[in-house]
Amino acid sequence: MKTLIKMTPVIAVVGLLAACGSTMEQRAATGAIGGAVVGQAVGGNTGSTVAGAVIGAGAGAVTTPR
Question: pTM for the complete prediction?
Answer without folding.
Answer: 0.70
